[in-house]
Amino acid sequence: MTLFKTCSAALLSVGLAVSGFAAKPAMAQDMDIAKAQDLVRLLFAKHTARFQTGDTPLMNEPGLMKRFLVDCLAVEGLQGRLQFDPIYGAQDADISDLRVFADPDAPILRGAAQIHLAFSNFGTPRLFIYTLIKAANGEWQINDIYSDDDGWTLTGLMREQGIANVACDPGAEVTLFDPPAGNAQVTNDSGMEDGDLPAHMDGGEMAVQPTGSDPDADVGMEQGDTPAYTDGAGGSDLVFIVDASGSMWGQVDGTAKISTAKQALTGLIGDLGASTNVGLIAYGHRREGDCGDIETLLPVANHSPDAIGLAINGITPRGKTPIAAALEAAAGTFPAADRQANVLLISDGRETCGGDPCAAARALSAQGIKTRVHVVGFDLSEEESRALQCIAEEGNGNYYTANNAQEFVDAVKQAVKATEEETAALSEPEPRPPHQAKAYFIETFDGPEIDTAWSVTNEVAELKALDGKGALFIAASGKKDNYDHAEAMNRLELDKQLPDGDFDLVLDLRMALQTGREHVWLSIAEDPANQIGALFWAGWKGCGPALHLSLSKLSGEAGAKPEKTGFDISLFGGPMVDNVCSKAPRAYGDQILEALYTDGATLRLKRRGRKVTAAVEMQLPAFEDYEARIVTVETEPVTALRLSGKPGIFAGQWSKAAPGESHYFLERFAIEEIAQ
Amino acid sequence: MIQSKRRHARSACRPRRFSATRQVLAATALFLAGAPLAGAQEELTEAERQRLAAADVVIGAEVVLPELRLPFHDPFDGRALAEHWTAINADENKYVLEDGAIFALQSGGNAHPSNEAADNVFVANGIMPDQDFDLSLRVKLDPKTGYEDVWVGLWADADNYLAANLSVYTKGCGASLYLKVSNRRTLSGEEKPDETGFTKNLLDGPIVKRICDKKGRAAGDQVIAVLNDTGFTLGLSRRGYRYQASITLDVPPGTGGTGDGGTETYSTSFVSRVEPFGQPFFMLGQSSKAGNGETSALFEDLTIVAAQ
Fold first, then answer.
1. Structural domains in chain B?
2. Domains of chain A and any CATH numbers
3. Which residue of B has its CA nearest to A463?
4. For the segment B64-87, what is each residue's pLDDT rounded down to a tens digit?
5. Cis bond upstream, residue B71 (ω within 30)
6. What is the value of ipTM here, to two decimals?
7. Contacting residues of B for A473, CB less than 8 Å apart
8. Measuring CA to CA, how many Å separate A507 from each of A486, A572, A601, A667?
9. What residues in B contact A476, CB-CB < 8 Å?
10. pLDDT confidence tier of residue A50, bands split at 50, 70 and 90
């Protein structure tokens, strides 16, 4: 039983103390800091009020959270999707000794407020550092939360969970104290009493930037994290190079240039063509005075707007301006030589690391007849402008200048639009037939026997049989019945050579979730320790079973624990239903699970070149306020350089399911060749 | 002690063949599919019938068990077990047919279908047809020790059965009530039998939310009392390869899914068998914690119908 010692009165007293401080500021910065503290304190108070009453966690309601967090981070069902409470840093709470105070050494670091939230939870001291930035209306918004005890950040947790943020538009940021016209006013629904509201203070002129708590551990991606690369003619690759040198903190129209740059970029990424692959390079964003501080934050690929937005918003200016080296880095980021390749450099100054950006641009454009280097210069002197214009000229690209925020936004939009128009003009309008699937092998499980090409490893005849109704029934039980266990029972293996080109392994199945620990594995396997496959599985969320789709690549010595690479999507964390620990979503989740048994789903393992993904498609039922719909979910790809092995199917259960049985009906298996 | 070692052939062809044992041979000699369900052979005791049957066949010979015809119904209204039943390890001091029911006693704490020595395991002398069915046993159970069971299901031997089980089991907060489906068999390649199943604690959510407070305990006691007052129906259903246990009983007002009281049914998840299997059976069980206590029950009716 939770004993929550901190009462509303105690929280209120903290608030009054803060407000009292804020009411008599000695300096404008003090006033600003006090407002940031108030926002953190009120977030904690509101969160606590919900916790105490058992209401829906505040973090799960983006409409309210947008008043506290930058809109990008206010995601539907966030706390549920994280399966974690980032305000308490724990699942349960017994709070005492609450303190909210500005960082004693750097209350404002490069324009971002650093607010400490300290308390004891069950007697254990906890410290969280909130980073706040300013929205366009001058109000603070929480941009990240850092746990000083455990080392995580909120944005890092979101990325780890694959939680995309909503499209960022800082210009329309919802804030608590000064909502833009048309937005909800501060009401009791925000969870605060009148007395909780601090006096509104005039905002300072300082425009500030998001500051990641851990700049070295933010938005960089590993190669294996790369989402699908959209290939073929008719599209283009576009690499943004973002200047994150210290000079980007300089202000234009009262707003830091980096803020304006982020606003412009995040505002347009949703409008990019579907065939445009995007990459993102930043320089100067991690270390001061380091000319080698250049990072490919996003390799060129078909990223979601949310992923791009997160990466852009994670940039914090700190260092030098190594433009030439950044252009050289960009040269290596284009995967395909036959597509239109554009580089868009956004900078507020000239090279400060001794390189020759013009030469670098020339070399880059010489890479291919379809390579262009475009430049948007922001708030430049004449000399700086000439230097950047040279880059565009040598790079066969366009040059745009901007002297205020609006001009900058327009220039970036214009530059991107030009690259897309140019791509359309350069692309040969050859009609391409859509991908067509051709059956290469089909098993419908409706004969008296399964195809003779199948073999069964560790066969246990008592646990499988054709049911005479077009399905292979498989029962699973026991502690060794995992997809990667060498002794797993009834592993089906197809002695059939895989197609040379692209293909899908397809499995239509029905699954009865009885234990909440079921899983079906559709794979290409050499042995249990060397496989790549699509895993459709159930796991317990604490309030019942939840579905997941995973892609997993296993490699290792036989008998040893294999190394696993892959991606997982919590289907009950958004794609099918969200917030399943609340009553209505839980009921709908149960309906989905029932439909999985009655109507089934289709699982795919897809090969496209070296990329392999897992996908699942399911017809979701109509239920109460939920409409019937077909949902298709696909993982990020994993690269398989040498794809070998045999197609396989396995239906099992995780060990904690014992002594329960898991039941599966495999209704159709196919290998579909994908014709280009 | 009579040991049962019957195992049916894996072939789905009928009739299925079984190796002979005493009780099977007895059943074979006396049972004909479709014979009258009750009222015949009352002048012979069960022991006499078994003895006569055993003397009439060669031990070890293969015999063929007939297949039961559905619907199958026994209201237990004779003065002796109908000829389509055999009591394994029969102990006539522990059961009697009277007033349209089998009044059964149990003691000793070892009455479980996996115990080869368990007495009075009532087994039908025919195998189940390969079709979906609903098997129902109407029972009144007097939970005097707090550690009693009723079992009904399909049985081949002590290591091979699939059954529904209602269990009264007493722990820290008093007597609780569990519904279970149990699937025991030895899988190919294994030496020891494996048991899978699902258990539902009926007094931890389904009928009563919790019994560890005063109000809940009182409600739980009311539910326990129902077992002997109005009784219950314990069932086992087959759908395809899947089998599920259920119980139907009249729950008191303030309990159950609606809180209104009345007849409610609760079910387990499913276990499976991919081959037709077993003979219908039922028994009164008792677990070892019952000590020297005595358990009693009335078996009022057994029905097996083909599923619609």
1. 70-306 (2.60.120.200)
2. 8-188 (no CATH), 227-426 (3.40.50.410), 436-675 (2.60.120.200)
3. B274
4. 788 999 999 999 999 999 999 999
5. yes
6. 0.79
7. 240-241, 272, 274
8. 22, 21, 8, 7
9. none
10. confident
